[in-house]
Design brief:
Elements: H1 3-8, H2 21-28, E1 30-40, E2 47-55, E3 61-67, H3 71-81, E4 86-91, H4 95-100, E5 106-108, H5 114-122, H6 129-137, H7 139-145, H8 147-152
Parallel strand pairs: 1-4, 4-5
Antiparallel strand pairs: 1-2, 2-3
Length: 154
């Protein structure tokens, strides 16, 4: 508690609200961390991207999309996130986020994306880590079979 600041305040200028933590989180709205990570099959010149979103507080995976590092793929992820009613998005500031997220809801900076970035390093993404691991173990198979689609996507 900052006692010096309290001495300068007039009681009429202070508003106190007491509520349970779960109620406060609901009022504030859902916050999400968004990020993208890449891998490749055969050639590094042909990377494939996983775009994903996790709940900022719990780390639960909300949605993910595979594709290129293009705005159209991010827009697919954004469509999947609409039903959640997310009010704050934390990102690393890559261009697609800047272009398609309302600036009032968009917060750029690594300080708020630590949870999602650490999951990249640890190779485990929340409770669905096994799902992601399976996708990445099968990356060669998934993208190898879809090479005609990949060529058409360029």
């Amino acid at each position: 508690m900052n006692k010096a600041a309290l001495k300068c305040l007039f009681p009429g200028h202070v508003e106190v609200e007491i509520c349970r933590a779960d109620e406060l989180a609901q009022r504030r709205g859902l916050a999400s961390e968004l990020d993208e990570m890449w891998s490749y099959v055969g050639k590094k010149a042909e990377p494939r991207w996983l775009w994903h979103a996790i709940d900022h507080h719990s780390g639960t995976v909300l949605a993910y999309v595979f594709g290129r590092r293009k705005d159209a793929v991010f827009l697919q992820l954004q469509t999947l996130l609409e039903p959640f009613g997310i009010t704050r998005f934390y990102t690393d500031g890559w261009g697609a986020y800047e272009r398609h997220i309302d600036p009032a809801q968009h917060h750029v900076g690594k300080e708020n994306t630590q949870k999602i970035e650490s999951k990249h390093i640890n190779g485990c993404i929340g409770k669905k880590g096994a799902t992601y691991a399976a996708f990445f173990r099968g990356f060669t198979n998934v993208w190898g079979v879809s090479r005609s689609w990949a060529a058409a996507d360029r």
